[in-house]
Amino acid sequence: MTPALIALIVIAALVILVLARSVTIVPQAQAKVIERLGRYSRTLSPGLALLVPFVDRVRATIDLREQVISFPPQPVITADNLQVGIDTVLYFQVTDPRLAVYGIANYITGMEQLTTTTLRNVVGGLNLEGALTGRDGINSQLREVLDGTTGPWGLRVARVEIKAIDPPASIQDSMEKQMRADRDKRAVILTAEGQRQSAITTAEGQKASAILSAEGKKQAAILEAEAERQSRILRAEGERAALFLQAQGQAKSIETVFQAIHDGKPDSGLLAYQYLQTLPKIAQGDANKMWIVPSEFSKALEGLSRLGGADGGEGRSWMDVDAPSAAGNGSANGSAATAAPAPATSLDTSTWFESQLPPAAEQPEARIEMTSIGVQPSLPTPGVATPPPLSEVTRDVQQSAGYPPLEDPPQLQQ
């Protein structure tokens, strides 16, 4: 290789080195601090920049983006003398690269130590419960102190967050027991409240059920009483109609008997015979120990003797039978025979069992209104003719027949 070629290669290498030292490229969101002959010259912004070779040099490259730094847990003593470990997270951004380079040797270490001391000052005035529940206040105080202190360093603290507060194990166990007791207390309260509501609801349901049951029993009792009332009314009406029909039948029977007696024209002998037939019935009875013959017994015997024809001077007896006619038996005194009595008039029984009472279904007591529970006012019953007493009927028959009234039956003495 010739000396000329070697010199040419050296010159080309020198030119390339000079050009490399003269040109620099700054990336986006970064800044470069330039020193000229050991003194601060300028801060290069993102883009292409030219430097004086072997005079200017890049002192530091600063990241202008917001950065996040997480510090390890720091032991802090609270106001109630409990040591807790607090882990913090710091969000900051470099606003002035020159101050960040020349204002502090290492701004990361400076912020870490500043955060630890400030955190101990803030948390030292709080108890454990206040530190656990007052994180927002601690974060605000830390950010204000750090932002005011790191301003001369060309930094801006955006926010400070407490990531964790770790109390001692014994304190954690006590806190867990307290929390468990509090939850058990709330569970017992909620259970008691549920049982109370359940008991109230059950009592209200039983009350409503008892009221409805009582109302149902009341309605049933009213309807049953109304039905019993209507039934008794209908039975009474039926018994009244039966008694009236029985009285009508007895009246017709007595009337028929007396009419038959009147048509037969009985005499004293028949009455004496009936009287003698009644005496054995009077003497019947288990309690009768002695029977005294009444004084009217002799009169009855006299009537019975006359009945047998002992006294022939009296008139015709009710037992006399007319002899057959002369044409029938050839008797000589056929012309003197008495003619046969005229047949009795036929008895009309068409109205014997007629009742003037209205039918039971048409009576107002038989109509039960199911829509009404109250007592219905009783309606007047149509007027029914009251049958006359038996003594009056007997007296009228005797008077119409012209017979003397019957004597009272004799009294028996025991």
Straight-line distance between termini: 192 Å
Number of helices: 10
Task: Write the H/E string, N to C.
Answer: HEEEEEEEEHHHHEHHHHH
Quick one: overall form?
A: rod-shaped
In total, the number of domains comes to 4
Strand content: 5-15%
| Average pLDDT number | 76
Helical content band: 40-55%
Write down how many β-strands occur, each being a DSSP E stretch of 2 or more residues. Answer: 9
Name the structural class.
Answer: alpha+beta
Radius of gyration: 72 Å
The low-confidence runs, each spanning 5 or more residues with pLDDT under 50, are: 321-344, 368-387, 406-414
For the largest beta-sheet, the strand count, sense and barrel status come to: 4 strands, antiparallel
Report on this structure.
It is built from 10 helices and 9 strands. By secondary structure, it is of the alpha+beta class. It folds into 4 domains: 61 residues, no CATH class; 101 residues, Tetrahydropterin Synthase, Chain A (2-Layer Sandwich); 140 residues, no CATH class; 45 residues, no CATH class. Strands 6, 7, 8 and 9 form a 4-stranded antiparallel β-sheet that branches. A 3-stranded antiparallel β-sheet has the order 3-2-5. The protein has a two-stranded antiparallel sheet with strand order 1-4. A hairpin with a 2-residue loop joins strand 2 and strand 3. The C terminus is likely disordered.
